[in-house]
Fold each of these.
Amino acid sequence: MVINQSLVGAVAAARDAGASVGRILGARHGIDGVLSDDWIDLRRVTPERLETVAATPSAALGSCRHKPTEEDCARILEALLRRKVGLFLYIGGNDSADAARIVAAHAAKAGAPLRVVHVPKTIDCDLLENDHTPGYGSAARFVACALRGDDLDNRALGGVKIDIVMGRDAGFLTAASALARTGRDSGPHLVYLPERAFSPQKFVSDVKAVYSRLGRCVVAASEGIRDSRGVLVASKFSNERDSHGNLQLSGSGSLGDWLAHLVKEKTGIKRVRADTFGYLQRTFPGMASESDSAEARAVGAEAVRYALARAAAGAPAEAASISIRRRQGRAYAVEFVAVPVEKVAKNTRSMPDAFIAKSGNDVTPAFISWARPLVGPLPPSGLL
Amino acid sequence: MVINQSLVGAVAAARDAGASVGRILGARHGIDGVLSDDWIDLRRVTPERLETVAATPSAALGSCRHKPTEEDCARILEALLRRKVGLFLYIGGNDSADAARIVAAHAAKAGAPLRVVHVPKTIDCDLLENDHTPGYGSAARFVACALRGDDLDNRALGGVKIDIVMGRDAGFLTAASALARTGRDSGPHLVYLPERAFSPQKFVSDVKAVYSRLGRCVVAASEGIRDSRGVLVASKFSNERDSHGNLQLSGSGSLGDWLAHLVKEKTGIKRVRADTFGYLQRTFPGMASESDSAEARAVGAEAVRYALARAAAGAPAEAASISIRRRQGRAYAVEFVAVPVEKVAKNTRSMPDAFIAKSGNDVTPAFISWARPLVGPLPPSGLL
């Protein structure tokens, strides 16, 4: 929901840099636009328009799911040099960081005058070197709000409700469901993460236990839950893969439906429902968290300032990624640190053990303290 | 999302009535609470607390899906008289109106001193005698926001996106998806309603036509779409029925998954995704539309004032329902009119023909003009 904040932050910083920056170009649909020479002149967009774009969810330049090969990266470099690009910013997750790394390596090999900076963005919050990533706080806010509403519905109607949350390998977004809780016995009562092996038997007995105590049960489960051998539970229902070779998880309700069916069959509870939050988690307008918006803006600006400062100092053009670090201390504050792009490329991080309850079906208070400032205050709930 | 506004409106009006009203009781889980003598003393809830409750989605008193039999209604009357209830308010849709009608009939037959008023509430907007119903504007706001975000996502990534919206028999909520549009070529590009026969062949060719023109397509389809014989398309996948004998439609992603599969198979388009909005549509916190909140509050208050005025005038205790009428004129305004409860019980209304495009896959400008004031302003969208 905040990717355009990073774009606008970068454009504003480039404009502020004065004569040291010439044209400011945006590639339509990421590297596809670079390769097909499809650019927008971002200097021609008014500041007012840019502010509206910044507050709009989903990449205003367009996105692509095309993972560039080594050969593509060589062609990307050619295309950038043809357009006399001196600074190339690439907004995205670890795959984007890796593409940025390869383009930079080609540039270095060719002795080309190109600086490359990766700007982090992923609702999965799974980038190495980062306390959290732009996009996460807002998506987490959506999930927490959704679960709060869903728990109220479940309170009114009873039964079992299962919500499937995005996050293939990392449970951060599913874990954010726990922020919905307003007190004892409020849901989600069970939280299942990709970081812990999912046992259908254990799941059914967990649900039974909550239901027999409260007459109701709200479950948040990650789309990426997997069995003890590491096989995705969702692989039972789908074999479609995206261009990165990953199994398609979102855009289908089958995992939730299967879990609901399992509970019905094994417990005899009549009212069992599942919702799969799907793309709403990352695109819902008006849901951005304040700190997430501000940090996404800052990280885009920082990428430009970092590269210009390095260039002014005549420093070598090593590709960097701007990482978000949390400052020590009681009040929430962050700082931005440029790290070598290799450190965030390819690999990802999972939820730390300290954030996952020993039971394997909940988060810890440490997670709640960590996540709360990222999501911001939620609408109050009044019960009778 | 605004049912508690009606509750709080009624409580406030009863408090304002002074000594003519004694105790103010709320039954937990609707008629289940009446039958099991499970009440909350609403005079003991502070006004501050009531305001928080009013702004909280989902019935704070709890809900039930138990449709009362004639015998139940006789027992409900007994229970109410035992508690010396003189005014019985029943918040809900046409089934609730019918239950209110039956209780009132039993009271009349027994010559019991009970007044019954039905307070309308349904996100389906399908009550007779009403321009629209409390709950609709806020759920419609959620749907419009969701589609606006989804269209931005589809713009960025391409492909086909199918969104399944609540509404078993009436298409009002699915139609609200069209409010998401910001200009030419913005989605939803196709809107399928229960009021028009759904042909899978026509659907596939509609999608193909949009996709070949734009390289993308966003579809909003009602969970209640049905074939030319009136059979629900969703009946292919589910045979679970609720206590009203209705096929379970929500809480499963199978209709969306089937439509997505159909498009993939018949068109060869690779990226086809479906989301089923499910319960979020009616429970998402912080999404209530302003006019919907105000009208829900007013209709609860009006129910109390109407009954007290009739009692003061010594008028007969015929059961009524408070209906919402739209005033003629350019500025949006409503008035509340008490109608005999029989007029809103049992039967429902569908989208008028004037709201449905001749093509059968869209709404008309007349629908947009009608719906816009109910939903209120949406977050702005900035495109590049």
Amino acid sequence: MANIKEVAKNAGVSVATVSRFLNKKGYVSETAKENIEMAIAELNYRPNHVARSLSTKQSNLIGLIVPDITNPFFPELARAVEDIALSFDYTVVLCNSDENPEKEEQYINMLTQKYIAGFIVSSNQLTSPHYDIDVPIVALDRAIHPSIPTVTTDNVEGARIGTQYLLDCGATNIVCMRGPVGLGPADDRLKGFLQATEGKDIQTHIIESPFYFEPSEKVAEKFLKEFPEVDGIFASSDTSAIAALKMAQAMGRDVPNDLQIVGFDGVQMGKMVSPSLTTVAQDIYEMGAYATKMLIKMIEGQELLEKNINISAELVVRGTTRGE
Amino acid sequence: MANIKEVAKNAGVSVATVSRFLNKKGYVSETAKENIEMAIAELNYRPNHVARSLSTKQSNLIGLIVPDITNPFFPELARAVEDIALSFDYTVVLCNSDENPEKEEQYINMLTQKYIAGFIVSSNQLTSPHYDIDVPIVALDRAIHPSIPTVTTDNVEGARIGTQYLLDCGATNIVCMRGPVGLGPADDRLKGFLQATEGKDIQTHIIESPFYFEPSEKVAEKFLKEFPEVDGIFASSDTSAIAALKMAQAMGRDVPNDLQIVGFDGVQMGKMVSPSLTTVAQDIYEMGAYATKMLIKMIEGQELLEKNINISAELVVRGTTRGE
């Protein structure tokens, strides 16, 4: 394979000029640029990124840390991150943290050794000291630290709108499946639920529930037995909402006629169940795309005009509510 | 941060010995090993993987190429690959090919420049010349080339069993949603369907259908209108099966009492719909784990005892069939 010296010779410029061109650092005349591009094409030269990352202390690898790629919210996010990264010639290393700070730290250590260019992190380790590293980080979905740029959904307002819709549709005895206590987005969604319901002449039950299917089914079974008069469910994730839907149907409840359900997330799966799930949809692709563009700006030394992006969620009315 | 010279000095050995130790190449005495390990711990030394990959022409990055991570089969596969890779100190670069040979080639080129250690590829580009590269490859789910080690499901036998079960449950007029023509696993599943149905006194309809939800709904709507007497569906993917279930219910069909459905894949989503999907379940995690272990063996220069692994699929009976 051709090396940088041969490219320089073919282009009639110095090796230093080719290096400046490849690393996009320093001045290269337009004529030199054209000659180098032609030489690269002619010799089928592939710049050696590993060698370059040694000299510039920068690679084009982005680490994406998510809790679990099999949770249906995260493949859609990962897809957006990868699409945008690729369009800027970056590639994405996928890391599942399982919400485990030690596993996160192991990843951060392994990847920092590879001169990773930056991280996009969907984590809840607010106080993790291992994020005190010298590469750019963007927090996605969940804030990590005030100093770290963040892309989130407006969870409070989204939950308020979703809960208000249940009230508008006539629900008067509502369970909030509030997600895990202490998880930022779940806590914010509970705030929105409370904003919509407090001071209203209705009954509410706030019940902790993980964002996983089978445990959510068990939670739903328990409260549907304990409070048979419940006529509305606001769930802090679509996975929990779908679990409640399935359990309610198995227990002979008619959704939406005697029990209405609103989820939160807007994952594709919500369209696949019967009836389709009414939900507060996050713009998942837009969140991933935004975070990736912010990170690449930081990696390339550009200034961020906005450090905290809060994207609106949107109510998507489908079949698990009765309409107003 | 400490460098390799300081480690050598602290351990009382030469830099070359530390380097042999780090790269696991050549002889290092047990005493030297212990001293080096202590020095590394004491100095909190992080070996520089980028510099090492330059000297050994090897990194611990694995490229995972899948058609689309948002197709629910692939997150479960990616999860297994990442789990096993991490346990061997490898990390995974995620690539969505969209079944587009040019995009695959772009990835292969970008990653080969980074001295990627190997690729796991779930692709259908049988004749792609860009796989003629000098790093190990394992094909997963879909065979690429006879020379490339492959991990697949026994699709023919799985489909035969799934179809036979529909017959055993009394279906006599069956649609096979056969997936995309020319896609290896889909073609094999059609073979299994034909093995089970040929020569039997039943009616069959073989209909092409993509592995995506909305297009599968349209396909199902069309054939349920055209052949209202259909009483069984064998779908080549769970996504298509779930689309058919939803459409059938929307058209007033009673599943499983007057229409039975069997899917193929065994993704988590099959448990979330009502009724739960009867399906031919691939051992998705095992497939990903197997492929990753094979690839790491190849990367580390060990011999593969088996080059082609064909894992059995298993019928999982749930609610979209009536039972025998």
